[in-house]
Specification:
Length: about 180
């Protein structure tokens, strides 16, 4: 029940001076597949994460930049979809992330959870990726030590049918975030 090994893509271009937000711009649809169980927490989030680990509480302000960005992205009928792969037990990071996942889901993002203890994730990649407007693929590489992003790759000659298939399979297998939360 493990995602398939990463398949080498021959024509990968490393992200250059293009900023992260410019790279992630889309016109109609954005699908994100997240396979890591923890990601690096830095900057202003670091203190909040440490407090969360001690108290279980994380207050997310309505003017949080992530929520503001999401509202902008959802305007004009655009669609945001995300599947988070979960390998129980939940990591501290995912418990922390689920606080803002809840806000994102309530604001209109189609956010789903694929629990590999309940569903077979065979055939899905072992790396994060984003599929924008069904035609642009960005692969993320993460450090196995702390989950920090060590590279984003704009895949200029990606097999789009394969990545659309990953998206479709992940969406089919995953349950909506609210339903996952209710099941406990």
């Amino acid at each position: 029940m493990r995602p398939v090994d990463m398949i080498h893509e021959p024509d990968v271009v490393q992200e250059t001076a293009t900023g992260y937000m410019d790279l992630m711009a889309f016109k109609r649809t954005s699908f994100r597949f997240q396979s890591c169980q923890r990601y690096r927490v830095g900057g202003v989030e670091k203190a909040a994460f440490e407090t969360f680990k001690q108290t279980g509480v994380y207050e997310l302000a309505q003017d949080d930049p992530r929520l503001l960005r999401q509202r902008t992205q959802l305007s004009g009928g655009r669609v945001l979809q995300r599947v988070q792969l979960v390998v129980p037990p939940l990591s501290d990071y995912l418990r922390f992330a689920f606080v803002y996942f809840d806000h994102f889901a309530r604001a209109g993002e189609d956010l789903r959870i694929l629990d590999v203890s309940k569903m077979d994730s065979d055939g899905l990649p072992n790396h994060d990726f984003v599929l924008l407007d069904d035609e642009i693929v960005i692969k993320f590489r993460h450090s196995s030590e702390d989950g920090s992003v060590i590279g984003r790759e704009l895949m200029t000659n990606a097999d789009l049918a394969r990545f659309r298939g990953y998206r479709d399979r992940a969406l089919e297998l995953a349950v909506p975030f609210g339903e996952y939360q209710e099941r406990g």
